[in-house]
C-alpha cells in the first residue's frame, strides 16, 4: 500500500475533532435536559453551533476535506441540531401538551432529518449564497434560544399561553427547515478578505450587544434570521409578479 493510499484511507484529526466536540455538546444538552438544567442544555446547543461552524472552515483552511468528514458532520448535526433541541423543548414544556407536544417535537426532528438529506444531495444545484430552507443550526438556535430566554427570565411554565408558544416555535422551526425559502448562507463572506475599519467596530458592538443579555440578544437575532428567508421570498415573488405585468403591458 502506497503512502497516498494510506492517507486516503486515514481520517483527518483536526476537523473531525471539532465535529466530535459539537456532537458531545449536543449529547450533553440532552443529558442536562433530563436533569432539569434547561438553561445549561440551551447553552450547550449554542456551543455546538460554534463548533459546527468551525469544523468546515478548519477543513478548508488546512485542506483536510474528506467524504468521511462530510458524513460524520451530517450525523453530528442530526444529533446536536435535530434530536437535542426537540428533546430539550419536550422535556421543558411540550410534554405538558400530551400528544400535541410529542407531535411538535417529532415534526422538528423529521424536518431536521429531511433538511440535512436535501442539503447533502443539493450541494451542486442550489445557489451557494443562500440556503434552501432554514439551516438546522439556526433552527436549533431558535428552539433552544426560546428555552434559554424563558428559563433565564423565570417565566413560569404553568402559564397557559407558554406551552402553545413553545409549540408554535417548534413547529415553525421544523417546517421552515423543509421550506423553499432562501436564507442567506454567509458563504460569500471570506475571512481572508480585507474590510474597512468600521467593520471591526461592528464586530465589537455585536459582542457588546450579545454580552449585555445573551438569551434575549441571541434569540432576537435568530428570530430576525428565521423570518428573513420568508421576507426575501415574498420580495422575490413581488418582483416576479411585477415583471410579468410589465411584459403583458399591464399597469403596476
Give a written overview of the molecule.
This is CDP-diacylglycerol--serine O-phosphatidyltransferase. InterPro entries: CDP-alcohol_PTase-I (IPR050324), CDP-diaglyc--ser_O-PTrfase (IPR004533), CDP-OH_P_trans (IPR000462), CDP-OH_PTrfase_TM_dom (IPR043130), CDP_ALCOHOL_P_TRANSF_CS (IPR048254). Its EC number is 2.7.8.8. It catalyses: a CDP-1,2-diacyl-sn-glycerol + L-serine = a 1,2-diacyl-sn-glycero-3-phospho-L-serine + CMP + H(+). This protein has 252 residues and is mostly helical. The protein has one domain (3-248): Four Helix Bundle (Hemerythrin (Met), subunit A) (Up-down Bundle). The protein is 74% helix and 2% strand. The chain is built from nine helices and two strands. It has a two-stranded antiparallel ribbon with strand order 1-2. α2 packs antiparallel against α3, α3 runs antiparallel to α4 (67-92) and α5 runs parallel beside α7. The model is unreliable at 1-7 (pLDDT under 50).
Q: Main attributes?
A:
252 residues; mainly alpha; Four Helix Bundle (Hemerythrin (Met), subunit A); two-stranded antiparallel ribbon; 9 helices; 2 strands; 74% helix; globular; disordered N terminus
Strand order of the largest sheet: 1-2
Query: Architecture in CATH?
Result: Up-down Bundle
Count of DSSP helices? Answer: 9
**Count of separate structural domains:** 1
What's the CATH topology label? Four Helix Bundle (Hemerythrin (Met), subunit A)
Overall SS class: mainly alpha
Helix percent band: over 70%
The CATH class turns out to be: Mainly Alpha
Q: Poorly predicted ranges (pLDDT <50, ≥5 residues)? A: 1-7
Biggest β-sheet: count, sense, barrel? 2 strands, antiparallel
CATH-assigned homologous superfamily: CDP-alcohol phosphotransferase transmembrane (TM) domain
Overall average pLDDT = 86
Shape: globular
The number of E-state strands comes to 2
Distance between the termini: 69 Å
